[in-house]
Amino acid sequence: MNQPAVSPTLDTLFQRTLMRQPHAPALLDPLNKSRITGHQPRRLTYAEADTAIDALSAHFVESGLPANSVIAIQLPSTVEFVLTVLAAHRAGLVVAVLPLLWRQAELAAALNRTAARAIVTMSKVDGVSYSDLAMHAAAEAFSIRHVFGFGADLPEGMASLDEVLARPPGTTRTVIQDGRKAAMISFDVTAEGFRPVPRPHFSLIAGGLAMSLEADIQQGATVMAAFTPMSFAGLASSLAVWLLCGGTLALHHPFESEVLEQQINEHACDVLIAPAQLALRLGDSNLAARMPTLRNVIGLWRAPEQVAASEAWIAPHASLTDVYLFGEAGLFGARRGDNGMPVAVMPGPHGAPREQSGSSIAGDILLTPKGTLGLRGPMVPIAAYAPPQPVGETLTAQPPRDYVDTGFAARIDRASGAICITAPPSGIMAVGGYRFLSNDLQEWARRLGQGALLTALPDRLSGHRLAGRAQDNARAREALSELGLNPLMVEAFRDRSGPI
């Protein structure tokens, strides 16, 4: 009897490369990892990574985490992040990714919304105690049963995963590998508020394919990922792209330009995946002489409305692919032509690669009746973005919607017929990868005291930057911390905004 075709999972892709080349390099840590986390940088082959994944997976099973339960992960861009995600999938768990800049209140809300059974974190990241943050958030989440951590000086009650990696793997359970099963949960902020966004394996792989095929990443490439991985785009651009090309994944914890350049040259990286503004900055400064091995650069735009007005790409030895990000809803890519300028993006179905006839359809771009950009396709989680049921109409069936409204204002150019993205969603601000409702600014400003000012200004690098004025700067930072802001977020506000 013929067995039905089963779509692959991330672990299936890893196992394929493992069987073919077990001793090939798989994972490379940031060179400055000792400063970031206190760990020494690690280099793992596929066989070594598989042993570590087995050990973590067995520990999750032995700890009593049932199949299909949720495990939350808040880790920097290091080898431990990749190993933990793949180990969770091997144990049949669903990964919820938690951004590093989140407040304790947001961590607790995410853990409660997803009924997470466990959380994995790092002892310290850039001097901030994430182990304490995780322990406090876990205390507010009734469903949490286990708190795991990497690093030294873990608080009492947190199990050390470094000790797990140091001993032989235990016994794991057999898990049916099916790409239709849930793989991850990321979190978005929309006009309706905080929203968990679940995705199956095939949706995450579709995002990786859309990038790798459009950018023409070769099999066996060495990929440098310099984009925070704690989102759909972050996972698709690092984990999925790496597993699809079957090469080596080098990780960089954003951002130290000199360290990034050193890593690219030391590892002879073929591909760089980074925020688009950083990529364009590198391309402006004699990229061919400084990083001669690069052949593909993928620039990720958190503010896709800025792509059309961006500078030309002037590094002829390496191509640039613009990837438009729309929160956690989805993405699409467009490789720049010989003139180095962004290409026109037409509405309707788009393939990967975009210009190749007969290529697989990566998604569909449309203009909604509200004048905003809509997305649909295999990577787009339509159900997660379903509009709320109108009050008083809970028994009335709503018309089905087969697309996600991203909220980005858009129009059709009359001359070319291309989609023009003109503005981000109203009421939502973003500082780096941290998204929040603009109404939150009023509460933050109120905490600063009488006569204080706090506002969000457009910023080409981070989307927005917070600018403020307060009579007592020390009191201002203290007030933001009392509100529950992650210490790294308060530092980011101060660094980007000067006085505050």
Automatic annotation (TrEMBL):
<feature type="domain" description="AMP-dependent synthetase/ligase">
    <location>
        <begin position="14"/>
        <end position="299"/>
    </location>
</feature>
<dbReference type="InterPro" id="IPR000873">
    <property type="entry name" value="AMP-dep_synth/lig_dom"/>
</dbReference>
<keyword id="KW-0436">Ligase</keyword>
<protein>
    <submittedName>
        <fullName>Acyl--CoA ligase</fullName>
    </submittedName>
</protein>
<dbReference type="GO" id="GO:0031956">
    <property type="term" value="F:medium-chain fatty acid-CoA ligase activity"/>
</dbReference>
<dbReference type="Pfam" id="PF00501">
    <property type="entry name" value="AMP-binding"/>
</dbReference>
<dbReference type="InterPro" id="IPR042099">
    <property type="entry name" value="ANL_N_sf"/>
</dbReference>
<comment type="similarity">
    <text>Belongs to the ATP-dependent AMP-binding enzyme family.</text>
</comment>
<dbReference type="GO" id="GO:0006631">
    <property type="term" value="P:fatty acid metabolic process"/>
</dbReference>
